[in-house]
């Protein structure tokens, strides 16, 4: 049976321009509420944010979410109530398991805006003790290969250490792969879950039009920057082809 894809076009997502923050919401978030796009599997929030220099999200609290940041460009300054202070750069993936409750702030560090994806997942177990971890991945690792950057706690190759090699540990049935796919290249990824979600990162800018930016085909369906697709996995494999003339940065979620 072939995979079933339901496309989520960039222009159909929630979005806002607050001057200091330019953002797109794949799922319901803040003032954007859409009952048809509340969550998918354990995936609850996926915001693609651009934060202006010397601004950001002040100290605020969370509980009962697995919160991870995928940094695309610029530098993200993270501080939290667990005593963690860190400057995250391109290729870094930072995971906060909020559990019984944490407070944190996230701000643009330095003279450039920071572009990152803020992703929240629903934990498999409630009232976990809060934890923090960081993983670092190079462009070379991700070039024309799917690299596992997030995976469930206890899975093979997943360390609970604050800093380690391999994927960041998440207390949710989510595995996240990332790639930088060159024009003309094709990748195939075997999926273990019944669902998946794919997202093409907006590396070309905040308002990438349909005639600009990278272009890929996922199982034959064309996606541009900012586009995503819900996948009901039937064949067990997903085929991603770069059919454009620019490198495409693609995230692929494997979900139960």
UniProtKB/TrEMBL annotation:
Q: Which GO terms describe its molecular function?
A: metal ion binding
Which residues belong to any copy of the Pirin N-terminal domain? 11-120
The protein's required cofactor(s) are namely:
Fe cation
Query: Which top-level group of life is the source organism from?
Result: Eukaryota
InterPro entries from the xrefs?
A: Pirin, Pirin_N_dom, Quercetinase_C, RmlC-like_jellyroll, RmlC_Cupin_sf
Keyword Membrane assigned to the entry: answer is no
Where on this chain does Fe cation bind? 60, 62, 104, 106
The record's listing under SUPFAM superfamilies reads: RmlC-like cupins
Stored CDD domains:
cupin_Yhhw_N (cd02910)
Q: Which UniProt keywords apply?
A: Iron, Metal-binding
On whether Metal-binding is a keyword of this UniProt record, the answer is: yes
Query: Bound how, and how many: what does the cofactor note say?
Result: Binds 1 Fe cation per subunit.
Quercetin 2,3-dioxygenase C-terminal cupin domain: residues covered: 161-255
The entry assigns this protein to a family as follows: Belongs to the pirin family.
- This protein's name: Pirin domain-protein domain-containing protein-containing protein
């Amino acid at each position: 049976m072939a995979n079933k894809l339901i496309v989520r076009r960039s222009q159909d997502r929630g979005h806002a321009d607050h001057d200091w923050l330019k953002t797109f919401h794949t799922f319901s978030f803040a003032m954007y509420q859409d009952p048809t796009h509340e969550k998918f599997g354990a995936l609850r929030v996926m915001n693609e944010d651009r934060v202006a220099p010397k601004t950001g999200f002040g100290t605020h609290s969370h509980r009962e979410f697995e919160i991870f940041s995928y940094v695309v460009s610029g530098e993200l300054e993270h501080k939290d109530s667990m005593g963690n202070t860190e400057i995250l750069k391109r290729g870094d993936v930072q995971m906060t398991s909020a559990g019984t409750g944490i407070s944190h702030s996230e701000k643009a560090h330095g003279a450039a805006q920071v572009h990152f994806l803020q992703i929240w997942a629903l934990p498999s177990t409630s009232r976990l003790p809060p934890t923090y971890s960081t993983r670092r991945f190079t462009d070379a690792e991700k070039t024309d290969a799917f690299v596992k950057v997030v995976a469930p706690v206890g899975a093979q190759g997943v360390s609970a250490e604050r800093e380690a090699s391999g994927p960041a540990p998440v207390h949710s049935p989510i595995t996240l792969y990332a790639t930088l796919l060159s024009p003309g290249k094709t990748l195939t990824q075997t999926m273990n879950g019944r669902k998946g979600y794919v997202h093409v990162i907006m590396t070309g800018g905040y308002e990438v039009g349909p005639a600009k930016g990278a272009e890929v085909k996922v199982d034959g369906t064309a996606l541009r920057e900012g586009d995503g697709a819900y996948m009901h996995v039937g064949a067990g494999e997903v085929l991603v082809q770069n059919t454009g003339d620019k490198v495409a940065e693609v995230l692929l979620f494997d979900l139960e």
